[in-house]
Every structure is written in C-alpha cells, then in structure tokens.
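Task 17 of the worksheet. Students: predict the tertiary structure of the chain below and write it out as structure tokens. Keep your answer in the requested format; marks are given for formatting as well as content.
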Amino acid sequence: MTLTPDLKKITHIIQYAGEHILLPYFHQQNTIQLKHDGSIVTQADLACQAYLQDELQKIAPDIAFLGEEMSEQEQRQCLQSEASFWCVDPLDGTSNFATPIPLFAISVALIQVGKPVLACIYDPIRKEIFTAIRGQGLSFNGQRIPPVMGKGLTESVGFLDFKRLPPYLATTFATQKIYRSQRNLGTCALEWAWLAAGRGQFIVHGCEKLWDYAAGILLAEEAGCVVTDFAGMPPFSKQGLSSAIVAAPARLHPSLLEHLSAG
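Model answer:
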C-alpha cells in the first residue's frame, strides 16, 4: 500500500526551512568543510537537513529518510530497503551558496516502490516552489501549469555541465552546432525545475546523484518530458546513487540521444 502525505504540509515545512534556515545563513559568513569526495558542506546544509528530517518524520513516521549529508553507508542501507523513503537535498547548489551566488534550492522527493511519487523543489531567493504528485501534473506556486511542448533542437537552450561529461561528448556538445545555447546554473534542482517550467529545453548531465534528480525527474515527467540515461534507460534505480541524465520534451529527446550515442 502506498502513502502520499499532505502536500500542503510538506511545502510548508520546505518553505519554512528555506526562509528561516537557508536565507539567514546565506546573509552571513558560513563555515565550509570539505567532504571525502572533495565537495563542500556548510553549516546551512547540516542545519537544514536536520530540520527537514525531524519535521518529515513527525508527519510520516513510517517513511525512511535519505539525505545528501548522511554517510554513504546510511544512504545505501536506505536504498536496499523495500521501505518508502524521503530523498532530500537540503541545499542544492552549495558552492553557489558559499560564494555567494543567489542560485540554490531545497529538493525533496518521496520514493515508493522505486519511483518518485511526490516532488517539491523550492527556491527561497525567488520564493518559487515547484511541486508534483505522480499523475496529477506540475504546479508552480500552487497553480497548475501546462506541459512543455519543446522547440527544435537547434532552437533550444539546454542545461549542460561539460565538466561531468566524458571528454569526447564534451567536445561534441561544445563544438558542434547541436543547439542554440547552453547554461549551467550550478544547481541541478533549479535546472530540473526550470526545465519543467519551460525555462530551458533540455538537460544533459554526465553524473547526477540520486538527491540531485529524484524530485526533478517527477517534475519533468509531469511536465511532459522524457528522462533517461545516455543509453535510453530509466535512470532512477534503488540500487544506485548516481546516473547520467538526458531529459527533454518527447519531441526533442530522441535527437539528443542520437547525438549522445554518436559522440
């Protein structure tokens, strides 16, 4: 049996965390630490995750929790369980946050039977919240918005992270006239939310972590996008913590896959 907690309660928790935890930290100097993989973590990441874990478990005590700032062992134990779990990135765009560049977000997804069934991405700087429940469409600030239609690939602006693409693909996408232009926001969550809202036409990323894309996949799919790995397979897997990603409206996705396979 599946359980979908009250979306209004969840969005309230996430918005509170953004406005009362992340924003105050953003406007002051943060202590930065290096993690084992070389990425950074701040006091804001840890404080926000602790708050979200506590509040989400209050409203749904039977749902497990997987957060970016947990140990890899704890994350894998959660994945190997058959239980439903929250997949949370308490501060996506930590490098932006610490710079400071005002592009970052909170990303929360509820995973049931190996798929995201509820998603929320919140941008506290712009007070923009993107939400979806599987099969019920995409909402922006509480209002339903229509699916994205997509443009031709040569007319499209895409979200690309060249640094995480294999060198031969980075060269292909950097030098060939495949698309009109590209952006890299420094926050996967906002790239997913903006794709779903039609503010960009595709995502190509060589390696996103589960918490980077768990909520974003559902937002994109509910907006009419197709999401796969570079081989055309569904990227979401309970057995893995990362995946290559290509996401675009249905009319655009095959062209991107063709370029990725030809690269």
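Marker's comment: The two ends are 43 Å apart (CA to CA). The chain has two domains: 7-145, 153-262.
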